[in-house]
Design a protein that fits this description.
alpha+beta; 5-stranded mixed sheet; 16 strands
């Protein structure tokens, strides 16, 4: 917030010295930098397809907080899914609409329990979010859709429960492209337990809907693959099991299985 106020003050000084008030050092107001006039009144809510200075600020703040929002000043599909992730993380009603009272929550940094792995992935099935942790800091919070708990026929034709496996895993293999399985297409999948993967999908609803894999949007998968690597630790929990117990450097817990 301090950085944001500093930017506003700097813009105020610059605009005051500009006779036209339309351009500052070649930057266009409302495109390259926020329009201060419209920033004076914060909107009650910002939602899909909205555009303007406050939407630009929201996109910037979501991105800084670890939520994968759109670039620029438009509330597009990417920002809507970033807001989904934000609302899921904070256990709010998942509407995809960013309301005025949510701004203060953007000042809080997502934190997770200490673990031995400084770099890892955590999938919280209760919240329906994926956390990417690097150097013990949460870098990304991504909305997911996991196993829906229903029954389907597996490759052998036997009834199988659509459950996402829970426990501690690591990435075992991956396919960089679209992989066709008997259940459908998987975009750039990273496998963490047998045939279960984190993969991109054109359908990522706000509730569990998969056969057991962890779905993310294709654009989120493109971003995640810049950070994923084979052997990276993956923790999955929250539906049928509790999160792994809290650890400390002095007294690490046993392996979570």
């Amino acid at each position: 917030m301090t950085a944001f106020i500093t930017i506003l003050l700097a813009l105020s000084v610059s605009l005051a010295g500009s006779p036209e008030g339309a351009e500052v050092a070649g930057a266009e107001i409302g495109t390259d930098i926020p329009d201060l006039t419209s920033l004076r009144q914060r909107p009650v809510e910002i939602s899909y397809k909205d555009a303007g200075s406050w939407t630009q600020v929201l996109n910037q703040r979501l991105t800084e907080a670890g939520f994968h929002a759109d670039d620029g000043n438009t509330f597009g599909r990417r920002t809507r899914h970033a807001v989904y992730a934000f609302q899921k993380h904070h256990e709010l009603e998942v509407t995809g609409v960013f309301t005025e009272e949510m701004w203060d929550l953007l000042e809080t940094t997502p934190e997770l329990t200490w673990r031995r792995e400084a770099d890892r992935v955590e999938v919280d099935l209760k919240k329906q979010v994926l956390y990417l942790i690097e150097d013990r800091e949460v870098e990304l919070v991504i909305p997911i859709s996991s196993g829906n708990g229903g029954t389907y026929l597996n490759k052998a034709g036997n009834p199988t429960r659509a459950r996402t496996p829970e426990g501690k895993f690591d990435f075992q293999w991956q396919a960089n492209g679209i992989r066709i399985s008997y259940l459908g297409e998987l975009y750039r999948p990273f496998y963490f337990s047998g045939g279960y993967a984190i993969h991109g999908s054109p359908s990522v609803p706000n509730y569990p809907a998969s056969h057991g894999c962890v779905r993310v949007t294709n654009w989120d998968m493109d971003l995640l693959r810049e950070h994923f690597e084979l052997g990276l630790a993956v923790y999955v929990y929250g539906k049928y099991t509790e999160p792994p117990p809290r650890e400390s450097i002095e007294y690490p817990t046993p392996e979570y299985i």
